[in-house]
């Protein structure tokens, strides 16, 4: 089993996603956060049930909560779920 989703693991995932996959973070906000008009987004935290983002819409920051389709078991499950969500959003 991989690491449980502790605040430290959440911080690590968020840092990686924001630095290396900002396009995916924006897709999460636009598609799953129901803010298609978002111009940018930052992933602030991830937990077993979903993720908290801040989207930029018309120059204003808007909090966005995206709920997962299942409760995450660990960091490996989070990794696979985030990848699957990007693939789904790109369809």
From TrEMBL:
Pfam families hit by this protein: DUF2470
Gene3D superfamilies, A to Z: PNP-oxidase-like (3.20.180.10)
Cross-referenced SUPFAM superfamilies: FMN-binding split barrel
Domain DUF2470: 10-85
Cross-referenced InterPro entries: DUF2470 (IPR019595), Haem_oxidase_HugZ-like_sf (IPR037119)
Name of the featured protein: DUF2470 domain-containing protein
Species of the source: Euhalothece natronophila Z-M001
Organism phylogeny: Bacteria, Bacillati, Cyanobacteriota, Cyanophyceae, Oscillatoriophycideae
């Amino acid at each position: 089993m991989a690491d449980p989703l502790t605040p430290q693991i959440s911080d690590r995932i968020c840092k990686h996603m924001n630095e290396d996959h900002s396009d995916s973070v924006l897709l999460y906000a636009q598609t799953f956060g129901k803010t298609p008009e978002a111009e940018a987004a930052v992933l602030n935290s991830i937990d077993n049930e979903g993720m908290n983002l801040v989207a930029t819409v018309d120059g204003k920051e808007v909090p966005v909560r995206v709920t997962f389709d299942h409760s995450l078991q660990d960091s490996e499950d989070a990794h696979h779920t985030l990848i699957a969500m990007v693939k789904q959003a790109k369809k």
